[in-house]
Write a structure and sequence with these properties.
Blueprint: E1 2-8, E2 18-25, E3 28-37, H1 42-61, H2 68-91, E4 100-101, E5 103-109, E6 112-118, E7 122-127, E8 130-133, H3 140-146, H4 152-155, E9 177-182, E10 188-192, H5 194-197, H6 202-211, H7 218-228, E11 235-241
Antiparallel strand pairs: 1-11, 2-3, 3-4, 3-5, 5-6, 6-9, 7-8, 7-10, 10-11
């Protein structure tokens, strides 16, 4: 497996409230991306707590003999522990009560991946046949798309596009979704914050990953595209390639 990661503050925000990490756990490779929220310092703290807690707890839960359902249960459980850790920290720090974060992760083993998400950070499967979004946004505009009120293209520019309906931190319980994914040699998994997807289209992501040179450079090319378009938010992405 080959893995790349990148994060950038963007051109408007004063601090980077995104966080990401990648870790090998026995036969598993685990990557996670979080996009923090909650004002100055709060979002940055929430995303860093989520990444660290999720990975630390998952390493204790995983074993090589687990099946897909057991991996999904373990990942969802670790998301709930990350939620508790954020809430515990927020309760001890005045002014941080509303801090929170999204989370999207990929737990890869051989030709299977378990994607977990809460919020609007995304996971994509990218192959020579195309790009497929695996995760489903927990957001106001995603609900509007589902009800037929707006189109996916209109959602990219809708004034409520940044309003999410689930996150780690704000609520006592955190309900994450899990998605089992099959991937083959030469396939890619992309995890990213909405700072990328709000400035770069799915087809541009597909082109840069598959068709425009060494995939090792594609995250830098995607970041440059985002910055050319103003990069109003933090931009974070992790790319895994099955070799």
């Amino acid at each position: 497996m080959r893995i790349w990661g990148i994060t950038d503050t963007g051109l408007v925000r004063e601090e980077n409230q995104d966080a990401y990490s990648i870790k090998t756990m026995g036969r598993f490779t685990v990557a996670v991306v979080c996009d923090g929220m909650g004002g100055t310092n709060g979002g940055q703290l929430a995303s860093s707590i989520a990444v660290q807690t999720y990975l630390d707890q998952l390493e204790q839960q995983l074993n090589d003999g687990m099946n897909a359902q057991q991996i999904a249960q373990a990942s969802a459980y670790c998301v709930s522990l990350a939620n508790e850790a954020i809430r515990h920290q927020a309760a001890e720090m005045p002014g941080y009560e509303r801090m929170g974060t999204t989370l999207v992760s990929g737990v890869a083993r051989d030709e299977e991946i378990l994607v977990t998400n809460i919020g609007d950070s995304r996971a994509y499967l990218i192959t020579r046949g195309g790009i497929t979004r695996i995760s489903k946004d927990h957001s106001v505009v995603e609900n509007m798309i589902d009800s037929g009120e707006i189109t996916p293209e209109a959602a990219r520019h809708h004034p409520k596009r940044n309003l999410i309906t689930r996150a780690l931190g704000p609520e006592r319980t955190a309900q994450a979704d899990t998605f089992p994914v099959e991937w083959k040699q030469g396939d890619f998994l992309l995890l990213c914050s909405d700072g990328l997807i709000n400035t770069v289209s799915d087809q541009e992501i597909l082109f840069e990953v598959i068709h425009n040179g060494d995939p090792g450079d594609c995250l830098h090319r995607l970041l440059e595209l985002s910055r050319m378009r103003g990069a109003p938010d933090n931009v974070t992405a992790v790319l895994l390639m099955n070799i």
